Structure formats: C-alpha cells, structure tokens
Amino acid sequence: MIVLGIETSCDETAAAIVAATRQGPRILSNQLRAQFAEHAPFGGVVPEIAARAHLDHLDTLIGRTLAEANVTLAEIDGVAATVGPGLIGGLIVGTMMAKGIAWGAGKPFIAVNHLEGHALTSRLTNGVDFPYLLLLVSGGHCQLLLCAGVGRYTCLGTTLDDSAGETFDKTAKLIGLGYPGGPAIERTANEGNAYRFVLPRPLKGRPGCDFSFSGLKTAVRRLIADGGGLDFGDTADLAASVQLAICDALIDRTANAVDWFRRHHPEGTTLVAAGGVAANEQLRRRLAALADGAGLRFVAPPPALCTDNAAMIAWVGIERLLLGLVNHLDAALHPRWPLNIGAPQRPGAEVTWSRE
Ligand code: KG4
Ligand code: ZN
Hints:
The protein contains eleven helices and eleven strands. The chain has helices at residues 36-39, 47-69, 88-105, 114-126, 164-175, 181-189, 214-227, 232-264, 281-293, 303-306, 311-322, and strands at residues 2-7, 12-21, 24-34, 78-84, 109-113, 132-137, 142-149, 152-158, 270-274, 297-299, 351-352. 44% of the residues lie in helices and 20% in strands. The structure holds 5'-O-[(R)-(carboxyoxy)(hydroxy)phosphoryl]adenosine (KG4) and zinc ion (ZN).
C-alpha cells in the first residue's frame, strides 16, 4: 500500500510518499519546504503569508516527491491531507490540492488530524504497539495522552495556558533569539549555566497531568526588564535556565502520567514523545531516564520526524486506509480539532472519532 501525504497546516509545506511493505513501513520520499525566511521578520507565523507560500510551492513539492519515490499517481492507493487543526488558509490549499489529485486519479481521500500524525509517528518509525503513553509537545499543543488505537485517544492532561513550544518561542523572542525559538534556545543553552537564573516550574509537585507555562514566560519578561539588557553570557545562561525549567515541568507532569499508565495499563510497555519539542535533546534524555526508572521503553522519532512533516500524514493515511476509514471529497476543514473531540479531558472518558 502506498499513500501520498500532504501537510500545510502551519508554516511548513510538505509532501511525502510512504509505503506499507511486508518488511514494514518505508518512507519513499519526504519533501519539506520551511518558511522560516518569510516569517522571520515578524517573529512568528503570519497566516496570510503562510497560505500564499503553500500555494506557490506545494505543486512543485508534490512533483518532486513523486519523482524521488519513483511512483506515479496511478500506483498510489490514497491521498491523505491534514484537514486540521491549523491555519485555515494553509489547510484550504493542502486539502483542495489533495482532493483534486484524489478525484483526478480516482483514489480515496483520507482527512487527517495533524495531531494524530504526531501521535502515530512512532508506529511508523519504531512499530510501537497500542496502548502507549504519549507526551505530545508541539507549537500548538501540550498534552499527555493514552493512545489505545487509531482514532482512540484519552487526554490525561493538557495545558492551562501556553504550550511548551510556544513557551520556547515566546521566551526566545524576549531574549532576542530567532524564530523558531526551540532550536535557537537549545543551541544557545549549550554555552550557558542553567542554574544562574531561578525560574518557576509551574504546577510542579501537584497531582494530575496538566501543564501551565505562562508564569515562566512572565518571570523571564520581568528578569529582562529588571536587568536592563542582556550581554551574550546572560543570554546563554537565560536560555539554559529556560530550557531546564521547561524540561523540569514536562518531566514532573509526565512522571504522574507514567504512574497512572502503569496502574491502569500494565500491558503497556512504552512511553512515546512526539511533536516539535520532542526534538529537544535534554527532554529526550530525561524522558528516557524516566521511562527506564518505571520499567518502560522510551521511543521518540528522529528529530526531523518530530517537527512537522508529511510522512506522518501519509502514515496516518495508511493506518486509516487499512481500517477502511476513508472520507468523502466534501470532508470539512477543522481549524480547531482536539484529538479526543467532545471528551471531558480526563481518564476514563475515551471517545472515538468516526469517519465523516
Ligand atoms: O510539531 P511542530 O513542528 O509544529 C506544530 O505542530 O506546532 O512544533 C513546533 C514547535 C515550535 O514551538 C518549536 O520552537 C519547537 O517545536 N521546537 C523545539 C525544538 N525544535 C522545534 N523546541 C525545543 N527544542 C527543539 N530542538
Ligand atoms: Zn505539528
């Protein structure tokens, strides 16, 4: 089975072809064009600019991915595209393109939730079996989830304010580092002393699996205002302190989820991390240690498959196609679309979202 995946929900234009073979999944091509240069002057993603850039580059990227994979449209089994959550302009560009190709080539269309792309990537890269515990940390989301099956997710905790990725991005902007903030903070932190600045670890030590990061952002803003400017040494120390505080908070909340997972799902063997922030080296190292201490395996996709990409969308296409979960060509877009739509955000409230 071979699926073409298209991802345009934020500031990466991406197209990929993934195959399910007897030997396991294979990424035949994974093309991506980031829009950092277009958005950098604004310090964040500008939706209108993103949509136009997707429009300018998506067809070239799809052509390139078909050529690299050496397959024709006649040889693919389905076209999958992100239909949400994300920026509406970009979602329209990617979804209309995917529906057009599906119709023209007479192939099924699969409407993909971007978060399910992140959630299932570890099955593509490492063949992880359900159920597993997932820390999903991206720019837009920060959640701990029980993944029980395709389309079956229970949210154990979510953020009360900002996501971890947003916190990296916003503090990087305050410190004067570039966009996106996560990689910039990680690079700069390598030269810094993480114990120089004392920053809050919101909700640390409290029961439950929710997150909160707005206090951390405010503390960084105050530090900078009180300090009256930063030299390079300060910048590196502050970046290192921010990274440590975010990782401390993520590890603390994940530890509570691990306890819950081991008690309620003794058959589960794996802690998974996904989303852009899961590319962070310190976070990966500490999650691995946490899993090890609890007798679990830790899996995180390679960094390039943690950040947004289309291979994960093609993979969801394959998983759904294998279950017969295809969509009509009038499938709607969902700019806001939680993984466990309509569910109370607590364990025991599992909800399956069905085909349209
Ligand atoms: O999953 P993703 O590519 O896009 C969304 O779905 O949001 O995640 C992007 C987020 C950004 O906030 C970015 O700063 C963060 O992931 N990020 C990182 C790293 N690489 C990307 N955060 C910390 N360390 C990194 N190495
Ligand atoms: Zn993402």
